[in-house]
Amino acid sequence: MDLSGKTALVTGAASGIGTACARRYAEAGASVICTDVVDDAGQQVADEIGGRYRHLDVADSSAWTALAAEMADDPGHLHLAHLNAGIMMGLSDVAEMSDEDYHRIIGINQHGVVFGLRAAVPLLEAAGGGHVLITGSMASFSPLPVDLGYSMSKHAIAALVRSAAPNLAERDISLNAVCPATVGTGFLGGNRDRLEAAGMVIMDAEEVAEAAMAILDSGLTGECFALFKGRQPEPFQFATIPGADYRSRR
Ligand SMILES: NC(=O)c1ccc[n+]([C@@H]2O[C@H](COP(=O)([O-])OP(=O)(O)OC[C@H]3O[C@@H](n4cnc5c(N)ncnc54)[C@H](O)[C@@H]3O)[C@@H](O)[C@H]2O)c1
Questions:
Q1: Separation of CA 185 and ligand 1 centre (Å)
Q2: Which domains does the chain show, CATH number per domain?
Q3: 177-212 pLDDT tens trace
Q4: Active site annotation includes 150
Q5: pLDDT, tens digit (0-9, with 9 covering 90-100), for 49-69
Q6: Distances (CA, A) of 200 to 188, 229, 236
Q7: What's the CA angle centered on 77, arms 75 and 81, to 5 degrees?
Q8: Catalytic residue among 53, 102, 150, 246
Q9: ∠ Cα 111 202 92 (to 5°)
Q10: How far apart are CA 239 and CA 171, in angstroms?
């Protein structure tokens, strides 16, 4: 996809997948707005790719409102919003999950993408259409007992993408998720070598960035693309409910 003359917004752009995607969108010609809460690293990425940096805590609804208002006055039209920022928590015992833990992970991973989508849609619509890509995970499809909050929030991304896409399609806005298996980023906390030695297959963030471009080019919407190292992204086939379509029941 040629992004020349287009504006792309990336959350969590200061490291890992966000940085790789910001670089890839810039390579494709986009003017990239890099956002994060780690300002030094975020600014460095923006400087490297000739983009702009904005501090944005994705869990802060009012920060999204302010950014959207600012962008509405911007002559550059938003064409792509990549809602990528996310955290893991590593809590497996629900009895040990404090209110603060719960609100933090759901706030960033789930509310953050809803606020981001809500802010982006009017801007994309004003530009005559565009794309939203959300970074999901294998945990969007299957349980992850070692991290309950992560699992819940990444499942929610699949529900959001599949539920919101039909309405957005009528406004020429695509909405998809890229759902990678393990990626060698800060998420692994410096354990990449140990995990690879133990046989885990780990892909580079750049592979996710290439997959993001392929998804944007796919012409599809409402899909959660599973991504494994060395393979093309593939729409995950969700099971259907046996029997009649429950949506038509009264
Ligand atoms: N690394 C993996 O194995 C893996 C696999 C599947 C999905 N993912 C997803 O990829 C996304 C990016 O993660 P990554 O692997 O690049 O990890 P990462 O830790 O390198 O990057 C995450 C970025 O999000 C930023 N961030 C954290 N809280 C934020 C907030 N409140 N507001 C704005 N930014 C915030 C961090 O500062 C960081 O720059 C996440 O959504 C993650 O769930 C990662």
A1: 8
A2: 7-248 (3.40.50.720)
A3: 999 999 999 999 888 999 999 999 999 999 999 999
A4: yes
A5: 999 999 999 999 999 999 999
A6: 12, 11, 21
A7: 140
A8: 150
A9: 50
A10: 28
